[in-house]
């Protein structure tokens, strides 16, 4: 993976937090848990982001609930110019068709392999968790085949292949082929870097490829680590945690603590893993609830 020339240069790794006076607006439009705003919540994720040049969405939740939350929060989604879909699961792209009816002009950036038949499958269940295939026919969809520079503020990267502390829950996420089900290697994930003034922000929907591997790829591409990461960590489990699970969570937190970065998380991280990580990372880690502003 070759180094790319980024507009923010190659400054030191000192942390710069996100504050109300920096001119950057980040609002969670849907998440699994209720926040103080009184917004609806569901198993899904969506963020609204305002920069100097853009009004954009990162993911659209599982349903159209994020649209109602946006209206309640005074956000006009008809002004959005770009939508970034982090990966091909329904809880991140389920609201795309409803959004497109409201805003038929915003470009929707989706990995070209995100429409494969994706499933959650184990001995007890087999559930389709992929995208509605009708999304592919929207004229505003932009298929992303590799890393993509959108402009001086926005950059998409993909093809993260590292497997250090790869989330164990991925083993139940499958891709259906002519020969049966195989473990999904998450090629359909893509990650958004936002350059804003002297800050670098990284958005990753679920970090299925492992947040540490994604950070490694980011540093290799840009020569630096992000000032802030907004991402789920895909550690949530429905049916109990093993000691191996807990050790993976603790080890991930210990390694993230070494970064000069603030981490905002929620959704697939899960409340139990979050509490464990928070004990290790302290103020470096924050949970974002539905309707919260970063």
Termini separation comes to: 31 Å
**How much helix is in the residues?**
10-25%
User: What's the alpha carbon Rg, rounded to whole Å?
Assistant: 18 Å
Mean pLDDT: 92
Strand order of the biggest β-sheet: 9-10-13-14-15-16-17
* Count, helices: 6
Tell me which oligomeric state these chains represent: single chain
Percentage of residues in DSSP E strands = 25-35%
Which sheet architecture does the biggest sheet show? 7 strands, mixed
The chain-level structural class is alpha/beta
Give the beta-strand count: 17
* Low-confidence runs of at least 5 consecutive residues: 5-17
State the order of secondary-structure elements, H for helix, E for strand: EEEHEHHEEEEEEEEEEHEHEHE
Brief synopsis:
This protein has 294 residues and is of the alpha/beta class.
Describe the protein's architecture and organization.
Helix 5 crosses helix 6. Residues 5-17 have low confidence and may be disordered. The strands form 3 sheets. Strands 9-10-13-14-15-16-17 form a 7-stranded mixed β-sheet, with helices on one face. The protein has a 6-stranded mixed β-sheet with strand order 1-2-3-4-5-8, covered by helices on one side. The protein has a 4-stranded antiparallel β-sheet with strand order 7-6-11-12, with no helix packed on it. The two termini are 31 Å apart. With 294 residues, the chain is of the alpha/beta class. The longest helix is centred in the C-terminal third of the chain and has 14 residues, at 243-256. It contains 6 helices and 17 strands. Strand 11 and strand 12 (180-183) form a beta hairpin.
């Amino acid at each position: 993976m070759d180094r790319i020339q980024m507009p923010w240069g190659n400054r030191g790794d000192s942390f710069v937090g996100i504050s109300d006076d920096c001119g950057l607006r980040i609002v969670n439009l849907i998440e699994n848990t209720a926040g103080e705003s009184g917004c609806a919540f569901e198993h899904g994720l969506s963020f609204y982001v305002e920069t100097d040049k853009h009004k954009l969405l990162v993911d659209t939740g599982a349903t159209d609930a994020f649209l109602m939350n946006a209206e309640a929060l005074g956000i006009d989604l008809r002004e959005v110019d770009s939508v970034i879909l982090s990966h091909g699961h329904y809880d991140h792209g389920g609201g795309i068709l409803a959004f497109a009816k409201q805003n038929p002009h915003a470009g929707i950036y989706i990995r070209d392999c995100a429409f494969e038949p994706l499933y959650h499958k184990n001995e007890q269940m087999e559930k389709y968790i992929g995208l509605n295939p009708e999304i592919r026919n929207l004229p505003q969809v932009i298929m992303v085949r590799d890393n993509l520079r959108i402009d001086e503020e926005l950059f998409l990267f993909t093809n993260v292949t590292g497997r250090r502390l790869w989330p164990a829950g991925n083993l139940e996420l499958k891709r259906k082929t002519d020969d049966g089900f195989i473990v999904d290697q998450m090629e359909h994930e893509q990650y958004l870097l936002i350059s804003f003034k002297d800050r670098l922000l990284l958005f990753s929907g679920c970090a299925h490829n492992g947040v540490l591997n994604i950070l490694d790829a980011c540093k290799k591409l840009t020569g630096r680590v992000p000032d802030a990461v907004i991402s789920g960590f895909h550690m949530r489990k429905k049916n109990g945690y093993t000691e191996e699970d807990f050790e993976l969570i603790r080890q991930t937190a210990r390694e993230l603590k070494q970064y000069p970065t603030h981490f905002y998380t929620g959704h697939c991280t899960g409340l139990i893993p979050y509490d464990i990580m928070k004990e290790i990372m302290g103020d470096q880690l924050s949970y974002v609830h539905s309707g919260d502003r970063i």
